[in-house]
């Protein structure tokens, strides 16, 4: 299996155990100092430190999930530095991602103001195979601290996320381990749903191609074959 197939969420099954494995590339983006690295460290290693140096360029982490009895999911988390915002390299970093978190700091309203720029940049540079945006969840991080702005209103945050095309939002704290697992599980569920929809579309396209091929070669149900429909 090629890296591209893996990164886009393809799977393979063992003939005996029917175990499925997925590798998903997930981006973690947002302004400098919003806690992106802390979130990843907490999620992957169950570890928190007050002292992280700013990420330079991009960093990686791998989280392995035993999703169910037959499914293993590997999440390749790309920690993209805040100072890389909207640079030419982000297109390379975003390539083949199937999901994203955008992170802001609830105690610094300027980091929330920048969220829409990150979302627009993300949507412009990476899409699913059918051309739709990749699912993106907004993380209102450092919720253990004093909050500023509309994050104090759940209704306003819900409206904001609907308007901007987010798949959802969570208040999180890497320090207190609040909602990190829940946010990740929500994003993986969205990715798996997209996988099923895309595979279903691929199957329908394949059936339509087979029918078109028969018609083009003069084959139809009146020749004794079974009736079929591409719809």
TrEMBL record:
Predominant cellular place of this UniProt entry's protein: membrane
Annotated GO biological process: endosome to lysosome transport; phagosome-lysosome fusion
Family annotation (InterPro entries): P-loop_NTPase, Rab29/Rab38/Rab32, Small_GTP-bd, Small_GTPase
One of the record's GO molecular function terms: GTP binding
Alphabetical keyword list: GTP-binding, Lipoprotein, Membrane, Nucleotide-binding, Prenylation
Location(s), subcellular: Membrane
Membrane topology summary: Lipid-anchor
Cellular component per GO, a single term: late endosome
A matching Pfam family: Ras
Record family assignment: Belongs to the small GTPase superfamily. Rab family.
Record function comment: The small GTPases Rab are key regulators in vesicle trafficking.
Database matches in PANTHER family: RAB FAMILY, RAS-RELATED PROTEIN RAB
Designated name of the protein: Ras-related protein Rab
Species of the source: Spodoptera litura
Phylogenetic classification of the source organism: Eukaryota, Metazoa, Ecdysozoa, Arthropoda, Hexapoda
């Amino acid at each position: 299996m090629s890296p591209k197939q893996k990164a886009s969420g393809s799977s393979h099954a063992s003939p005996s155990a029917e175990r499925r494995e997925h590798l998903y590339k997930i981006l973690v983006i947002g302004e400098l100092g919003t806690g992106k690295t802390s979130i990843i460290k907490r999620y992957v290693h169950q570890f928190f430190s007050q002292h992280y140096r700013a990420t330079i360029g991009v960093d990686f982490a791998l989280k392995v999930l035993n999703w169910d009895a037959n499914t293993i999911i590997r999440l390749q988390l790309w920690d993209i530095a805040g100072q890389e915002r909207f640079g030419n390299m982000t297109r390379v970093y975003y390539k083949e991602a199937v999901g994203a978190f955008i992170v802001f700091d609830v105690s610094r309203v300027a980091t929330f103001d920048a969220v829409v720029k990150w979302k627009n940049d993300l949507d412009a540079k990476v899409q699913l195979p059918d051309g739709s945006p990749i699912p993106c969840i907004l993380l209102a991080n450092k919720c253990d601290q004093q909050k500023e702005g509309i994050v104090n209103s759940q209704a306003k945050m819900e409206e904001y996320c609907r308007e901007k095309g987010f798949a959802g939002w969570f208040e999180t704290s890497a320090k207190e381990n609040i909602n990190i697992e829940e946010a990740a599980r929500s994003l993986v569920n969205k990715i798996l749903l997209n996988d099923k929809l895309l595979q279903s579309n691929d199957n329908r396209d394949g059936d339509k191609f087979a029918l078109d091929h028969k018609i083009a070669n003069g084959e139809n149900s009146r020749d004794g074959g079974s009736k079929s429909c591409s719809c």
